[in-house]
Amino acid sequence: MNPRRLPIVAIAGRPNTGKSTLFNRLLHKRRAITGPEAGLTRDPVFCRAELCGKPLMLVDTGGFKLDRARNPEDAALEELVVDRALGILEQAGVVILLLDAENITGEDEEFIETLRPLQNRLIVAVNKTEGGRKTAEAWNVLRYGFETIYMISAEHGDNIDQLVQAVASRLEENTYSGYEYDYDTFDTETIRITLAGKPNTGKSTLSNRLTASAASIVTPVPGTTRDVLEGEFAWKGKRFLVCDTAGIRRKTKVTQNIEYYSVNRAIKTMDDADIVILLINAPENISDQDKKIAALACERGRGVLFALNKWDLMEAIPNARNAAADKLRYAFSKMQWAPIAAISALTGEGIAALLSTCVKMKEQLHKQTPTSAFNAALEEWQRRYPPPSGPLTRFKIKYGVQTGINPVVFRLFVSRPEACKQNYMSYITRQIREELGYSLIPIKVELQRSGAERRGKNKEMYQR
C-alpha cells in the first residue's frame, strides 16, 4: 500500500461564523456538529471529499479566539484549539476564510493579519448573506485588501457552487504538502475501529498513538472530544481506520445539547465499525455505564475488545492481569467471548497485542463456513449431546446454514422451535465458537421451523 497525498482544503475563522455548517454543506452530509453555541468544534475534523471531481481532504478547524476563558483549564484548551487550527492551515493548499456578514470583529481583523503569509492560498467567503441580506456590509470586507470575496449562505446553499469552483481553481494553481490518504485501497479490507468509553478513559490518547499524530486534542478535562475524529494507519500490512468518539455518559448526566449530539454521534459510529474497542480505566472499578456501552456494541453485532487502559498506573504485583481479567469477566458474564487487552495508550504498552487481536477479530467477522461443513458439525454435536427426547421437549435440528457475515448469523431449521431450550442453544452456540473459529466475536443463531421457512412462521432468535 502506497498512500497518496491529497490536498488539504481547510475552513477557518473565528467561532460561530458557520464553519461546521459550510463543512457539512460541502460534504452533502451532517459530519460536523453544529449549533448556535460558539466554539463547538475543537479538534480539526477531517473528511475525504470531491469538489468538481477533484479528490481532497476537507478540514473543519476550531475557531480563532483572542480572548481566553478565566478558568485556567478552559483557557489552556482554547489555546490548544487555536494552535491546532493554525498548524492545519500551514499544511493546507486552500484556506477558506469564513466571515460573518452580520458582524466583523476585532478577532476577524487579527485573524486576517495572521493569515497574510497565506494570501496566495486564501479564499474569502462572507457567510449569512442568504437572499442578498447584509451584502452592503459584506462588501466592506474588501477594505482589508482582498481582490475577491464570495457572498454565501452555508445554511441555505446560496452561491456555494461559485465557492466550490473557486476552490477547485485555486487547487490547480497551488502546490501543497498534502495529507497522506490511500483512497484507492481504502475499502472493505480496512479494519474499522471505534474507540468508545466513558469520558477521560484515554480514547484520544490511544487514537493519537495509533495514528502517530496529534489529531485529537488531549487534556485532563472530561468531554474534550466532541466530533467523531477519523484517522487511518497501517500496521503489519493491514490498513486501519480509527474513530475517536466523545465520551458516553449516562443520560441523566447529559445536560447540554452539544453533549447530547456528541454522544449520539459516538453511538452511531458503531454502526459502521468492525470492532468497538471499549476503553476502561484499569485503576477504576467497572461501572454500569461500561456495561451499557458494551451492550450497544453487541446489539449491532460488532466485535468488542475490552482495553484496560492506563495499565502503567497499576501496581506491579504477580498475576495482576489475570485478576483484572477475572474481574472483568465476572462483570460482563454474557460476553465471555470478548477478548481483553491490558494497555497504556500513553506509553504504548500492549498496543501491538491489541492490534494483533483486532486483525484476528476482523478475520472471524468475515469468516464464511461452508454449508456442508456446518451440517456435518451439527450432526456430530447432536450425536455427542442429543437434544431432549421428552414429549414436550423433543425437537431435531434438520440442517443449518450461515446467512450473514459482519455480523455473523447462523440459521437452524428445526422440527419444533418452541421446544428448543436456552441451555441447548447455548451448547450449539458454544460449539460454533470453539470448533468453527468464531471465538472472539458475537454471533447470532436463529431458529426457523423446518418446512415452513417460505411462510416465515414461528421464527425465534437467539444471540450469544
- Helix and strand run: EEHEEHEHEHEHEEHEEHEHEHEHHEEHEE
Q: Give the C-alpha Rg.
A: 26 Å
Can you identify the CATH superfamily of the largest domain?
Answer: P-loop containing nucleotide triphosphate hydrolases
Q: Helix fraction?
A: 25-40%
Secondary structure tally, helices:
12
Strands, total number? 18
Q: How many domains?
A: 3
**Termini separation:** 37 Å
Largest sheet: 6 strands, mixed
- Supply the CATH class of the largest domain: Alpha Beta
- CATH domain topology of the largest domain: Rossmann fold
**CATH architecture call of the largest domain:** 3-Layer(aba) Sandwich
Mean pLDDT: 80
Quaternary state of the chains: single chain
Would you tell me the structural class of the helices and strands? alpha/beta
pLDDT < 50 runs, ≥5 residues: 32-40, 182-187, 216-226, 249-262, 452-456
Strand order of the largest sheet: 3-4-2-5-6-7
Mass-distribution shape:
elongated
Question: What percent of residues are in strands?
Answer: 15-25%
